[in-house]
């Protein structure tokens, strides 16, 4: 049974760690090419896809701030890291013949378009993949919040959150073997249970704007295609109870 109706427009959130592949840090070209291939297989004539990328494979603001870098500076450095990842993914997608645009919330005119909501929607309507980089353009906001914000702005039908596990668990399955996978819950339940799939700001944006979230394993072949098709590939986080 499908978890959601087949969406027409989706926003896919990809963490920076996915770009790292088997490397300790930085970009693994094989990992980028694999992600691009999975995305290409998910696209159909009736699918519009936007993507938000993280930058944790290049810059981990939380840990690096602990070594004395001021918070705002560290956050801006993280935004720059997302631009690097966005450009690498754009390159891989376009080599597969997929027209792609990068829009950045921080202005880098020689590398990416500035984020303009109406232009982003127009790109999507023309069948282009749009990659959002630079976070929200402001410090103190995560790329999860960016994903929720951009999904709402472009009127996405669902936010697809790719992770290292196959959904949301009652606890961290990597450290607690008794953790149970949840097939469905509400955003408020996720907040109350302190499930750290996304931050509270991101959950609140989705809840207030009636946007469902599908959390799934990004690393399983075919999962992006299945998630885009509306199949139950992970955990559905509904904005509210039916």
Characterize the structure shown.
- By secondary structure, this protein is an alpha/beta fold.
- It has a single domain (9-238), classed as Acetylglutamate kinase-like (Carbamate kinase, 3-Layer(aba) Sandwich), CATH 3.40.1160.
- The chain contains nine helices and eleven strands.
- The chain has helices at residues 17-20, 29-42, 61-65, 71-95, 117-125, 143-153, 187-192, 200-208, 223-228; strands at 9-14, 48-53, 100-104, 113-114, 129-133, 158-163, 168-169, 181-182, 184-186, 213-217, 234-238.
- The relative contact order is 0.17.
Structure at a glance:
By secondary structure, the chain is of the alpha/beta class. It is built from nine helices and eleven strands.
**Helix/strand structural class:** alpha/beta
Distance between the termini: 17 Å
CATH domain class name: Alpha Beta
Annotation field: number of helices: 9
| Strand arrangement across the biggest beta sheet | 4-3-5-2-1-6-10-11-9
Q: Which spans have pLDDT < 50 for at least 5 consecutive residues? A: none
Q: What percent strand?
A: 15-25%
CATH topology: Carbamate kinase
- Arithmetic mean pLDDT: 91
Q: Per the principal axes of the C-alpha atoms, what is the gross shape?
A: globular
Radius of gyration: 17 Å
Assign the CATH architecture: 3-Layer(aba) Sandwich
What is the succession of H and E elements? EHHEHHEEHEHEEEEHHEHE
Largest pleated sheet: 9 strands, mixed
What is the CATH superfamily?
A: Acetylglutamate kinase-like
Q: Give the total of domains.
A: 1
Total beta-strand segments: 11
Helical content class: 25-40%
């Amino acid at each position: 049974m499908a978890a959601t109706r087949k969406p027409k427009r989706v926003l896919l959130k990809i963490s920076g760690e996915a770009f790292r592949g088997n490397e300790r840090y930085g970009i693994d070209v094989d990992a980028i090419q694999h992600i691009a291939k999975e995305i290409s297989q998910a696209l159909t004539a009736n699918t519009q896809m936007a993507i938000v990328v993280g930058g944790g494979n290049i810059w981990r603001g939380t840990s690096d701030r602990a070594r004395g870098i001021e918070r705002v500076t560290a956050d801006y450095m993280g935004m720059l890291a997302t631009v690097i990842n966005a450009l690498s993914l754009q390159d891989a997608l376009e080599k597969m013949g997929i027209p792609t645009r990068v829009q950045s919330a921080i202005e880098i005119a020689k590398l990416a378009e500035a984020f303009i909501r109406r232009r982003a929607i127009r790109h999507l309507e023309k069948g282009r993949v749009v990659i959002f980089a630079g976070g929200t353009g402001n410090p103190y906001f995560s790329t999860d919040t960016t994903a929720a914000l951009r999904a709402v702005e472009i009127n996405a039908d669902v936010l697809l959150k790719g992770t290292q596990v196959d959904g949301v668990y009652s606890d961290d399955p990597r450290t607690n073997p008794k953790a149970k996978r949840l097939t469905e819950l509400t955003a408020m339940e996720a907040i109350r249970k302190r499930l750290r799939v996304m931050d509270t700001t991101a959950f609140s944006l989705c809840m207030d704007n009636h946007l469902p979230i599908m959390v799934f394993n990004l690393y399983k072949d075919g999962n992006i295609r299945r998630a885009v098709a509306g199949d139950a590939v992970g955990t559905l986080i509904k904005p509210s109870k039916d």
